[in-house]
Write a structure and sequence with these properties.
about 150 residues
Length: about 150
Amino acid sequence: MSRLAQLIATGFGAGYAPIAPGTAGSLLALPLLPALARLRDGTPAAYAAVLLVTIALAIWAAGRTSRDWNTIDDGRIVVDEIAGMMVGGAFVAGTWPAAALVFLVFRIFDVWKPFPIRQLEKRLPGGLGVVTDDLLAGVFTGVVARLLLQLG
């Protein structure tokens, strides 16, 4: 199970990118956003199920891998970025420009970690802490991206 957890946690190897592994993980999620938006618009329950299963897998994989590697939030763990991007994409239309905007805004929030994002990462245990801060960054991203798209 540890190998499966590590495979998922590292975004099938994207987390091993020598430079900016979080960006590599976010890029992995980018092409999923338009397809997920179509699923959301056509079958909201199926979309919710995909999102919830992804979040649950992310928490499990990040937690198990953190324990195996004896780390708290290793940079190679990027499944949290994937889940956060999916949350951010929930707020916007399923277009490539919207997906690209989600990517850019998410990277800003993921690096910056404004209040209370950083506090969640530090206060919640294991995989929950690793993933929850990115989920909240995804919510912030979605709101900002939607506003920017409406203004533009």
